[in-house]
Amino acid sequence: MAFASSSVAERPFAPATTAGDVSTIVYRSRAVAPLSDQDLQRLMRTAQARNGREGITGVVLYDERQFFQWLEGPEEGVKRVMGSIQNDRRHTDLEVLTHYASPTRRFSGWDMKLAARGANPALWQSDVLEPPRAIIDDLRRRPASAPSLLAKLMPLPVAAGDSPLATSLAGKPLGNTTVSILKDVLLKTVIPLLHHHEPAAADAEDVPVNPRAAELAELLVASDQAASLSLIRELRGKDVEGRHLFAPLFEPAARALGDLWGDDFCSEVEVTLGLCRIQTAVRLLGADTRRSVVSSVQPKVLIVPAPGELHQLVAVLDSEWLWSEGWSPQSEFPATDRALGDLLSASWIDVLDLSLSAAFRRKDSLVRLTETIKQARRASLNPALLVLVGGRTFVEVEGVGTAVGADIVSRTSLNVDRYMVQGMKTVGEGLHCTEQCEDAVG
Ligand SMILES: Cc1cc2nc3c(=O)[nH]c(=O)nc-3n(C[C@H](O)[C@H](O)[C@H](O)COP(=O)(O)O)c2cc1C
């Protein structure tokens, strides 16, 4: 059988577990031939019997010959079962997507459930579940996101009268759990990931998304902000700059907040509060960041959330990134297109950085954004104004940036300075500092 990735033991961020830790592995693979209901039942019977003995829980999703499986349990047991699975001739191209240790299980009580569309429930009773169409679609589009997508198959606990998140996460007794999980995520998963995968390109798809960003989003909605901030600062250590948490952790956590809202797990207000908590963390981390030498020649950048957009996280991340690169962007919050036009006609601006929400897709805002960009170009003193757009919709929907009339789409704040310089070079002549700016960025 061919393996698309290194073995589990060789994963660079495979964590060493301590007693009581739950070892979790998520992988994907492809069935060598389509499996019938009977084939799947045989597979599941063996799996459940052995998982029961080994203390392993999880879920396996089967969709058009693709398997995605979440396995969790004691490290030794998970290793043994994973060894058998890797040698199983019913599937091939096995790729481990994540492997980490944590203090909690995600699928307690499921000694292995099958998630498959159209499976006959009469045959399976409670061992099968119908995965939501949206999860299947997302898995087909973004198979590497399987860890956070499979996690959604386990419903969060619901208590009468309260939102599930408020019930499961809010309140004092959970404070220590929250901190310990957050500490665990950062110490064992995020920090090693940063050391091993320093991202080079400013493209969201090249950045290793932390598989537990979704879990962080859940914690952010109701967690103890003061404790989590001091923890982030403590764990970041001396060598890792706070801004290197933007792409792998904060941006996907913001999208996960939007997903929680989409799945009715929290309200819009809770999403906005969660984003504010990320913003606060970003600002405080920024206060500790060493700034590059301030460049004497740099583009004039105006950073604004699109008029009408309440969420400011993208603007904050871009502004922090540029500031730490030694740039001095101007951040404003114009409420209307006219107010934005006034800013652009009052002084020379090379780059307009316009953003929509980092959490929501904001499809309804695109017509308005098109008009905003048109008016901004008309009002600008700079006839070759470079317009850069950012936000969740531009990360996930191909072609939207061009459709609204932008010059560049920024999928992440990581290296946004380089995108701007590159864009200024290609947008045309007449920019008053293109050459020097390129030198300044190197
Ligand atoms: C996609 C897939 C998922 C599987 N999941 C499990 C599992 O969760 N637990 C398990 O014991 N076996 C699982 N199996 C079956 C194992 O590969 C293996 O057949 C079984 O554990 C018996 O192991 P043995 O032949 O080494 O005794 C799975 C097989 C496939 C193809």
Q: Could you describe the 3D structure shown?
A:
Residues 22-113 form the BLUF domain. InterPro entries: Acylphosphatase-like_dom_sf, BLUF_domain. One of its GO terms (molecular function) is FAD binding. This protein is of the alpha/beta class. The chain has 3 domains: 8-143, Alpha-Beta Plaits; 164-288, no CATH class; 301-441, Cobalamin-binding domain (Rossmann fold, 3-Layer(aba) Sandwich), CATH 3.40.50. It contains 18 helices and 11 strands. The strands form 2 sheets. A 6-stranded mixed beta sheet has the order 4-1-3-2-5-6. A 5-stranded parallel beta sheet has the order 8-7-9-10-11. The longest helix has 22 residues, at 175-196. The protein is elongated, with a radius of gyration of 24 Å. It binds flavin mononucleotide. Flavin mononucleotide (FMN) binds at residues 43, 46-47, 50-51, 60, 67, 69, 71, 81, 84-85, 88, 90-91, 112. Residues 43, 46-47, 50-51, 60, 67, 69, 71, 81, 84-85, 88, 90-91, 112 line the site of flavin mononucleotide (FMN).
